Amino acid sequence: MTEAAQIFVGGGGEGYATPQHLLTGYGNRHGLIAGATGTGKTITLQILAEGFSAAGVPVFLSDVKGDLSGLAAAGSATGKLHEPFMARAATIGLDLQYGAFPVTFWDLFGQQGHPVRTTVAEMGPLLLSRLLELTEPQEGVLNVAFRLSDDEALPLLDLKDLSAMLTFIAENAAAIGARYGLVSATSVGAIQRRLLVLENQGGAALFGEPALDLADLMQTAPDGRGTINILAADRLMASPRLYATFLLWLLSELFEDLPEVGDPDRPKLVFFFDEAHLLFDGAPKALLDKVEQVARLIRSKGVGIFFVTQQPADVPDDILAQLGNRVQHALRAFTARDQKSLRMAAETYRANPRFPIEQAIREVGTGEAVTSLLERKGIPGMAERTLVRPPSSQVGPLDPALRAQIVAASALRGKYETAVDRDSAFERLRARAAAAAREAAAPQAPDPADSFGQARRYDPKMPRTTKPRSARSDSIGETFAKSFARQLGTRSGQAIVRGVLGTLFRRR
Predict the structure, then answer these.
(1) 40 and 110 share a domain?
(2) Among 267, 301, 330, where does a domain finish?
(3) Domain boundary residue among 288, 309, 330?
(4) In the prediction, which pLDDT does 81 show?
(5) Is 34 within the bounds of a domain?
(6) Is 361 inside a domain boundary?
(7) By the 8 A CB rule, do 221 and 468 touch?
(8) N or C: which end of the chain has fewer CB within 10 A?
């Protein structure tokens, strides 16, 4: 592996004169950017995104506050931070040149970028249960819905498909329970109420077609620089569970679809997970195990993950151990808990005899950080007090008019803007219901044998005893049940493939 390519992070050592570099060949060994609010995490994220892009590596990041959209515009000598940035550049020996970077904007709601969608089937029951905050019995019912979707060729693409499937399960609970296990109407009702809450939060926009093509996140500009994909997350953060679940789904899809590449000269994609604590808060152990698995194994697929959070303790220890590149901004130790977190953070760094690491983490100012970046052969670098370089792009949000121009000029314009509602579970179940209703309402032809048996001479004194035409008494639900019972045990369609985190019933 060639290790010559590197990203200049800042200056360390005495007088900040020693360059600190992140080797791009170890960009897939993951990383951590931590620090209290206002200590410079966003600037660090911005300069790393610039560095990877300049090295030809595509980047995906979430813009929680709207500040990172400035990557699409060049910094300016008239900006309020120009003078301090030039002074910082002079201190660390950097010839600062302002410039813009190739950016593609994405937005779950389709307002500030290209819409992002996936299907319910691709999300899978595990992640969807996490998103809906379901109990174990409710998760079991959801698994039945996904299995039934596969067995009965009823594709789950959007939320109305899932809602229709749940209604079908409730109406045919006896027949379905005989094959897949007991299905509680109470659990079905609880899931449907959760779906309603998700729709009210705007989550329905995530599910549907056309689904996101991962190849569109891994593009390079004509000049060879990697495209920086920015997800507008300011509105999305109003639903933190939806935000975390979407990004986790994206990671799982990358893990599932990308081939093994070992240790490439540079990553195929670098993924920045801002507000990373949202991923782990309240997550069940099964999900944490899957996240750990992805973090450990996705490295060999050429994907690097950088978790951005306030406290290193926000990340579980098993995952924290996988993060080789670290940029630790200041931590405030006002409480006993803060002091403990500070002490634990300091213990994870390779000691530097020039200064106590715990004290350095407490004292570094805005724009400074304690860094430990992997050296050649993957050796953890010695902790260094580093003055982080200023960015070349604009600091702060992009002008909305300029953003709209960039979105309109994007090569992906028109690919995702129009939603497609193709034939799926909702339409097929509705067609079944209509067919059953027509069958129930159709008049029955009289039985000739019955009419012959009742034939007799006309007698006006004899009361009429002719049997009235019998009406079909089966309800639509009963019709469904009978039809479904005949189909149990058969396979009427190929199973739908889902991502690794939702693959309880995946078949190749």
Answers:
(1) yes
(2) 330
(3) 330
(4) 92
(5) yes
(6) no
(7) no
(8) C
Which pair of structure tokens corresponds to residue 44?
């660090």
**pLDDT of the residue at 507:** 40
Three-class SS of residue 86? Answer: helix
Q: Does some domain include residue 62? A: yes
Q: How many domains does the chain have?
A: 2
CA–CA distance, 109 with 202 (Å, rounded to integer): 8
Domain that residue 193 falls in = 118-208+418-438+475-508
- Give a yes or no: residue 297 inside a domain: yes
Residues 128, 105 within the same domain: no
For 274-329, what is the HEC assignment?
ECCHHHHCCCCHHHHHHHHHHHHHHHHHCEEEEEEECCHHHCCHHHHCCCCEEEEC
Neighbouring CB atoms inside 10 A of 28's CB total 26
Distance of CA 360 to the CA centre of its chain: 35
For residues 197-215, give the mean pLDDT: 91
Phi, then psi, of 106 in degrees rounded to 5: -125, 150
Tokens of 9: 């992070």
Is 360 in contact with 13 (CB distance < 8 Å)? no
| Residue 74 and residue 85 in one domain | yes
pLDDT at 456 over 70: no
d(CA 58, CA 103): 10
Distance between CA atoms of 208 and 319, rounded to whole angstroms? 32
Within a 10 A sphere around the Cβ of 26, how many other Cβ atoms?
25
Where does the pLDDT of residue 473 fall: very low under 50, low under 70, confident under 90, or very high at 90 and above?
very low
Query: Does residue 104 sit in the same domain as residue 253?
Result: yes
pLDDT mean across residues, the chain = 86
Model pLDDT, residue 467: 46
pTM of the model: 0.85
Contacts of residue 254, defined as CB under 8 A and 6 or more positions apart, other chains included, come to 214, 269, 271, 298, 301, 303
What pLDDT shows up at residue 340? 86
> How many residues appear in the chain?
508
Which position has the higher pLDDT, 163 or 444? 163
Terminus-to-terminus CA distance in the chain, angstroms? 33
Residue 501 · residue 252 · CB < 8 Å: yes
Reported as a pLDDT band with limits 50, 70 and 90, residue 501 is low
Long-range CB contact pairs, 166-170, < 8 A, 24+: 166/141, 166/191, 166/192, 166/195, 167/192, 167/429, 168/429, 168/480, 169/141, 169/144, 169/145
Q: Please determine, for residue 474, whether its predicted confidence score (pLDDT) is greater than 60.
A: no
State whether 11 and 28 are in the same domain. yes
What share of the chain has pLDDT > 70, as a percent?
A: 86
